[in-house]
Amino acid sequence: MTPEAIIDLFDLLAERLATRLDVLENWDEMGTKPGQYVHDLVADKILVGPLLEAGFRVLTEESGIAGDGAITVVVDPIDG
Question: Which of 32, 36, 63, 72 has the fewest Cβ atoms surrounding its Cβ within 10 A?
Fold first, then answer.
């Protein structure tokens, strides 16, 4: 994947995340881990799949590490 294609993918995912978070009403703590919030779970759901499909290895606070790409993307978009 070219650097330009990576930037385009990240821009697209940032747009998707912003659109979803703009309408999110519940920002409360939720999930199976202490300090895990709804917005973190939403971000994880939106970002991880497309990044894995693009061939990246992905590390997130919410779901751990997945994939086996040569490049690791660390996802902690809200409070990271």
Answer: 32
C-alpha separations of 71 from 3, 11, 79 in Å: 12, 17, 22
* pLDDT value, residue 79: 60
With beta carbons less than 8 A apart as the criterion, state whether 22 and 35 touch: no
pLDDT over threshold 80, residue 10: yes
The span from the CA of 39 to the CA of 28, in Å, is 8
Decide the pairing of beta strands 72-75 and 57-60: parallel
∠ CA 34-49-73, rounded to 5°: 75
